[in-house]
Amino acid sequence: MMFRIARQTLAEIRADCAARAPEEACGLLLGRDGAVESSVAAENVADERLRHFEIDPAALFAAHRGARSGGLPMLGCYHSHPDAPAFPSRLDAERALDAGWVWLILGQHGEKAYRVVANGPIHGRFETVGITII
Ligand SMILES: [Zn+2]
After folding, report:
1. 1 CA to middle of ligand 1, Å?
2. Which pLDDT value is given to residue 98?
3. How far is the CA of 64 from the centre of ligand 1 (A)?
């Protein structure tokens, strides 16, 4: 399975993560048919934002509401690891509850994408997916 993302959207996500470093940035991925067409930057409401992230529930609520009223559905989320590789932490896995969601992680050496699956090879929760820029 490949994860497809619009070039402009990926550029916006990279810029958001760079602007918020050294804190972790986070946001939502919106699109259709497995292709991310836009993103929404969300406030990181974690207590320790240098090492963790928690998407502002208000952003999730707004995205759900937008999708119900004809907007783009949510396909997943992104967050950054400003000084670590783009590999999911155990805490990331514990929080990855939405099966089928794609997690885009921007690490210190670039980004990688993972899909949330039952019994995945990574922490029992994720599998790696390739990224195609469209
Ligand atoms: Zn993480």
Report:
1. 22
2. 87
3. 23
